[in-house]
Amino acid sequence: MSIWTEEELLRHIGLYKTALEDLATAEQTTFEGITLRRSQLPEVRKQLQYYEGELERLRGGHAIHVVNFGSVR
């Protein structure tokens, strides 16, 4: 059982997606009093994956966790 409602999760997902878009063209962005810098992109992506996983679990699915082992040559 999730501690989040679907509405809360969708709001957080939207905020973090907007942050990703903003940081693609700006050095930093601010939302809801939180300032994020481009150097924090990995954490932004991690939070987005967390909220998406929680939403999937809430909807009765299974959360998918992605592990990145770096680039493959």
Can you tell me about this structure?
With 73 residues, this protein is mainly alpha-helical. The protein has one domain. The protein has two helices and two strands, in the order αββα. It has a two-stranded antiparallel ribbon. Strand 1 and strand 2 form a beta hairpin. Helix 1 runs antiparallel to helix 2. The protein starts with 5 loop residues before the first helix and ends in a 15-residue tail after the last helix. The mean pLDDT is 88.
SSE topology sketch:
Elements: H1 6-25, E1 28-31, E2 34-37, H2 41-58
Antiparallel strand pairs: 1-2
Question: How would you concisely characterize the structure shown here?
Answer:
By secondary structure, the protein is mainly alpha-helical. Helices cover 52% and strands 11% of the residues.
Using brief descriptors, characterize the structure shown.
single chain; mainly alpha; 2 helices
Number of helices: 2
Radius of gyration: 14 Å
| Low-confidence runs of at least 5 consecutive residues | none
Spatial strand arrangement across the major sheet: 1-2
Helix share of residues? 40-55%
Mean pLDDT: 88
| Total beta-strand segments | 2
Summarize the biggest pleated sheet.
2 strands, antiparallel
- Our estimate of the beta-strand percent is 5-15%
Give, in order, the helices and strands.
HEEH
Structural class per helix/strand content? mainly alpha
Shape: elongated
Distance between the termini: 40 Å
Number of spatially distinct domains: 1
